[in-house]
Amino acid sequence: MSMSNNKITLFNLFDRDTVLHLRIPFSFYLMPVFIFGISQAAHIHVPDTIIVFIALHLFIYPASNIYNSYMDKDTGSIGGLENPPPVTKRLYYASIIFDVAGLLICACAGWGNVLVMAGYIAFSKAYSWYGIRLKKYTYLGWASVMFFQGGYTYLLGNMAAEHQVALSWFSPKNLECMLFASLIIGGSYPLTQIYQHDEDSQRGDYTISYKLGITGTFVFTSVLFSAGALVALHYFLTWYSLSQFFIFTTCLAPVILYFATWFWKTSKNKTIADYQHAMWMNQISSVCMVICFGIILYLNCAK
C-alpha cells in the first residue's frame, strides 16, 4: 500500500523513529483522571471500562502525541522524549491509523463511546493543526487542554464504567468531578510547557506558561492546585467522607514537597526549570495520583 512518493508503505510505516514519537509510555501521565472516573462509578461495567481504557491510552493518546510532533516539527525536548528523532510524513499516516484503530476498538463498547471518543480526537487535532491551532492562543489553548484532558477525560472514564452515555449522566456529582479534574490538569499543564518557552514562541505559540514566565507559572499552578483541593474537600465531604479527602491529601504530599522544592530552587536559578525537572514532576504526580485514585476505587468497590 504505497502512501506517498517517499515510498512509505504499510510495512515500513512504523520505523523506530515513528514508534518513539508515539510516546506510548507518556500515556501513564494522563492515566490518573481516567482512573478517578472509574473510581466514582456506582457500578463498574468491566468490559466497557477495559475497552475504552485500551483505546484511549494505547491508541488515541499516542495518535495525539505523534500528530502534535508532526505539526510542531520539534527539535528540542518534548513530553516523554528528551531527544526526539527527525519528523517525517510517516508520523501523519501513523496518527490516522492509530485514531482509526482506537475508534474501532471503542466500537466494541458501543457507538455512544465512539462518539464521545471522537470528540476528544477532534480536540487533539484542532489543538495542533495549523488550520485551527488552538495551541497558538494563550488562554483558549490552555482552557481547551484543561477541559479535554481534565473534565472530558473524567467523562470518558466514568461513562464507560457506568455503561451510560446519555444526558442524564450530567448530575451535580459528575459535574463537580469534572470541575475538580479540570482544575488539576489546568494547574499541572503549564508546568509541562515551562522548559519550551523559546521553541514555542519561535513557532508563534505563546503558551500560558510563556506569558506567565517561569515564576508566574509556579504561582499560577499553586493557585489552581489550591482551588482543586478546595473542590475536592467539598466533594468528598458531600458525597463520601473526610477519610477519602485525607487519602487524597496524603497521596498528594510527595507532589507538594517536590513542587515546593523545585519552585524554591528555580527562584534562585531559572535554568532549573528544565525538561528533567518537569518530567520528574510529571512522574511523581502521576504515580501518586494513580495510587490515590486506585485506593479510592478499591474502597468504593469494597462497599
Description:
This protein has about 300 residues and is mainly alpha-helical. The protein has one domain: Orthogonal Bundle (Farnesyl Diphosphate Synthase). It is about 70% helix and about 0% strand. Helix 7 (about 170-190) runs antiparallel to helix 9 (about 210-240) and helix 9 runs antiparallel to helix 10 (about 240-270). The model is unreliable at about 1-5 (pLDDT under 50).
Secondary structure elements and pairings:
Layout: H1 16-22, H2 31-39, H3 46-72, H4 90-107, H5 111-128, H6 138-162, H7 172-192, H8 197-202, H9 208-239, H10 242-268, H11 275-301
Helix pairs in contact: 2-6, 2-11, 3-4, 3-5, 3-6, 4-5, 5-6, 6-7, 7-9, 9-10, 10-11
Structural class: mainly alpha
Number of helices: 11
Shape by Cα distribution:
globular
Question: SSE order in H/E notation?
Answer: HHHHHHHHHHH
**Helical content band:** over 70%
How many structural domains are formed by the residues?
A: 1
User: Averaged pLDDT, please?
Assistant: 92
Number of strands: 0
CATH topology: Farnesyl Diphosphate Synthase
CATH class: Mainly Alpha
Strand fraction band?
under 5%
Q: Radius of gyration, rounded?
A: 19 Å
Distance between the termini: 53 Å
Features of the shown structure:
303 residues, Farnesyl Diphosphate Synthase, 11 helices, 72% helix, globular, disordered N terminus
Summarize the structure.
With 303 residues, this protein is mainly alpha-helical. It has helices spanning 16-22, 31-39, 46-72, 90-107, 111-128, 138-162, 172-192, 197-202, 208-239, 242-268, 275-301. Helices cover 72% and strands 0% of the residues.
